[in-house]
Specification:
Layout lengths: L4 E4 L2 E3 L2 E3 L4 E2 L3 E2 L4 E3 L2 E4 L4 E4 L7 H11 L6 E3 L5 H4 L2 H7 L4 E4 L1 H9 L8 E3 L5 E3 L4 E6 L9 E5 L4 E5 L15 H16 L3 H11 L6 E4 L8 H12 L4 E8 L5 H15 L3 E6 L5 H7 L3 E11 L2 E2 L1 H13 L5 E8 L5 H7 L7 E2 L3 E4 L4 H27 L2
Parallel strand pairs: 8-9, 9-10, 10-11, 15-16, 17-18, 17-19, 19-21, 21-22, 21-23
Antiparallel strand pairs: 1-2, 2-7, 3-6, 4-5, 7-8, 12-13, 13-14, 14-15, 19-20
Helix pairs in contact: 5-7, 5-9, 6-7, 8-12
The structure holds MU-OXO-diiron (FEO).
MU-OXO-diiron binds next to helix 2.
């Protein structure tokens, strides 16, 4: 079976939908599957393929090319070396022996190191280079660190299209060629959180860089195409900005109910004060949702009991994840309980060196929380409210 869809004359979507994939990088849950988009650009003289697909979907891409009767491809543009876009390059190179694999120097180096392409088949592309296909000229835009050091974007001025690779994409398997904005928003935000957020300062620069381009369509390499570019560009500007929201993320784990009792009380205390709460029981939470919640929140409060004389490993996992994702979160604290002492506070705070967090005094109960512990939780909620008000006022004043 084949799946070939025309976007504009001479521009076809010929990638693959992966409805069944449920995990990426052996880490990130994909509740909605994903797609590996590949675009065929046919000029009057030459043909280019932008991005290949994961090796598991190589047959789908090759079948599409065969169904179209494509006998020659001049350029296979590898916008990014990660295997979900390059895994089928070997098959393509075999089928199209005269094609050049073109990409940034770093991308080509990686592809050769991965054993996906021979060095003599490669052609380096630099920022500002153009590839003329005859009536369609591809302009190369260097965009490192979205999320690897090798990425390029490709702008097709004649059709006002930007091919954005991972940037602006979403892990979403859908039959929609064009984004249903109400559906794609959460998938794109989750994708931003998992993949782009650690590189927020680079993302801002790339957004600025493409702001001068005349763009009708943004075609990422995962998820549907954006027929209204401003939808995703506005969302990215908001997510990558320095502004935070009046939200507290509460990842927690509880063994015998003491930490849970504190978290539940604290959540109510925050909500009563008008603060939005995102609560995650780490024994059964989707880490993608947790990552997504960190995009905007001003504060994170981790809940953990003491186990084996330290923080619970699931709480440490959440702290390691938050540290790696580098959200713009400003404040943090820890809630928990202990039976006979331990090092959980130092363990958690030392696990997050990347985050420039202001720490509120933790609230740690001995055994099941008592009245005094609940009062301290109210006090912590008051302190968070005061800081959030101050922050949001200064954000509003700066607008
Ligand atoms: Fe979709 Fe970074 O690969």
């Amino acid at each position: 079976m084949t799946l070939i869809r025309e976007i504009k004359p001479g521009i076809l979507s010929i990638g693959a939908i992966d409805w069944d994939r449920r995990l990426f990088d052996a880490l990130i849950p994909l509740p909605d599957g994903t797609s590996y988009n590949s675009y065929l650009i046919q000029g009057k003289e030459k043909i280019a393929l932008i991005d290949a697909v994961d090796s598991t979907k190589a047959d789908a891409l090759i079948d599409n090319l065969n169904a179209l009767g494509i006998e020659k491809i001049d350029y296979i543009i590898a916008q990014h070396a990660e295997q979900d876009h390059s895994g089928s390059l070997g098959r393509l190179a075999e089928q199209y022996p005269d094609s050049k694999v073109a990409g940034s120097a770093r991308c080509l180096e990686l592809l050769v190191e991965f054993g996906l392409v021979d060095k003599e088949r490669t052609q380096e592309l630099k920022d500002g280079d153009t590839i003329d296909l005859g009536g369609k000229s591809l302009q190369i835009i260097s965009a490192p660190w979205v999320h690897w050091p090798d990425t390029i974007l490709t702008y097709l001025a004649a059709d006002r299209m930007l091919f954005s690779c991972d940037f602006l994409g979403s892990h979403l398997a859908t039959s929609d060629l064009y984004a249903d904005e109400a559906v794609v928003y959460r998938a794109a935000k989750r994708y931003y959180a998992e993949i782009m957020m650690p590189f927020r300062q680079h993302i801002k620069k790339h957004l600025e860089r493409i702001s001068s381009l005349d763009i009708d369509l943004i075609a990422p390499s995962h998820g549907p195409i954006y027929a209204r570019p401003e939808f995703i560009l506005k969302a990215y500007r908001e997510w990558s900005s320095d502004e935070v929201k009046n939200q507290v993320v509460l990842p927690f784990v509880s063994m015998h109910g003491s930490t849970k009792a504190m978290i539940d009380y604290f959540a109510d205390s925050l909500i009563t004060r008008g603060i939005e709460v995102k609560r995650f029981d780490l024994t059964n939470s989707d880490i993608g949702s947790l990552a997504e919640s960190l995009v905007d929140a001003a504060t994170v409060v981790i809940g953990t009991p003491t186990v084996l004389s330290g923080a619970h490993p699931l709480a440490l996992y959440a702290a390691i994840l938050a540290n790696a994702l580098r959200p713009k979160t400003r404040y943090a604290s820890i809630i928990g309980s202990f039976g006979w002492g331990g090092r959980m506070l130092e363990q958690i705070t030392q696990t997050m060196p990347n985050l420039k967090l202001q720490l509120f005094d933790p609230v740690i109960a001995k055994g099941y929380p008592k009245e005094a512990d609940f009062r301290r939780l109210d006090q912590l909620a008051d302190e968070i409210l005061a800081k959030h008000r101050e922050l949001i006022q200064s954000q509003n004043a700066a607008k």
